[in-house]
Amino acid sequence: MKKPQAFYYFSMKSEFGEIAIVWRHDKKKLMRVFLPSQHRLFKSSDYKDAASLKGNNSAVRKACKIMDMLLEGKPGMFPLEMLDWSVAYPFQRRVLRMECRIPHGMVSTYGRLAHKLGHARAARAVGTALARNPFPVIIPCHRAIRADRSLGGYAGGLSMKQRLLELEGLQFDRYGRVMAERFW
DNA sequence: CTTACAAGAATAT
DNA sequence: ATATTCTTGTAAG
């Protein structure tokens, strides 16, 4: 296993558990976010510890601070130019960017997002793109649900998806469906 | 190139 | 609530 010189990881605590972020220092960009449920996929030995970053780790600190806010359900936008988009294919990039436009406290559906992208029937492809979201939480894929207002899926587990939405002020009915009066 | 999927949607029952 | 059918972009073969 080689260890790319410029890749650093930082592990942060949250109410959901340990969340790891991978920072690409040569580009000064965030490469990936690993949710607690994805810890199996995350190999810290593949990266260097961000704690070893001398002085100039302010960008990492800033990234963590924004992450913390988002994990508490506070509105905030991670600077999209600090994300390394090269990890995503064009269609996925478009999906992720569209996803970012869903306002805090609001939800959309996979189908509506597909429609906005000009692929009216690509709801399922949108779901796939979101399932592979390299930046969960930052890119709020938890705000995309099914047309019947059921949750759909989430890489971090459905309980985390529900909790994130609740933190944004959304409520659920007794069948676990989002009580949204309207979709974005 | 072909195939098998995936965090869907619409429809009917 | 469950079953059927229609979908599209991707990764793997």
Give a quick precis of the structure.
The protein is an alpha/beta fold. The protein is built from 5 helices and 6 strands, in the order ββββααβααβα. β1 and β2 form a beta hairpin.
Molecular structure report:
It is a single chain. With 184 residues, the chain is of the alpha/beta class. It is built from five helices and six strands, in the order ββββααβααβα. It has a four-stranded mixed sheet with strand order 3-2-1-4, covered by helices on one side. A two-stranded parallel ribbon has the order 5-6. The longest helix has 14 residues. The protein is globular, with a radius of gyration of 17 Å. The relative contact order is 0.15. The structure holds a DNA duplex (13 and 13 nucleotides).
Keywords:
single chain; alpha/beta; 5 helices
Strand content: 5-15%
Helix content: 25-40%
In the sheet with the most strands, the strands line up as: 3-2-1-4
Low-confidence stretches: none
Task: Give the biggest sheet.
Answer: 4 strands, mixed
The overall pLDDT average reads 90
**What string gives the helices and strands in order?**
EEEEHHEHHEH
Provide the structure class.
Answer: alpha/beta
Number of helices: 5
Label the overall shape: globular
Strand segment tally: 6
- Calculate Rg over CA atoms: 17 Å
Spatial gap, N to C terminus: 44 Å
Q: Which secondary structure elements does this structure contain, and how are they paired or packed?
A:
Layout: E1 7-12, E2 19-24, E3 29-34, E4 48-49, H1 58-71, H2 90-99, E5 108-109, H3 110-116, H4 123-131, E6 144-145, H5 158-167
Parallel strand pairs: 1-4, 5-6
Antiparallel strand pairs: 1-2, 2-3
Helix pairs in contact: 3-4
This protein binds a DNA duplex (13 and 13 nucleotides) through residues 89, 91-92, 109-111, 114, 119, 121-132, 141, 144-148, 151-155, 158, 161.
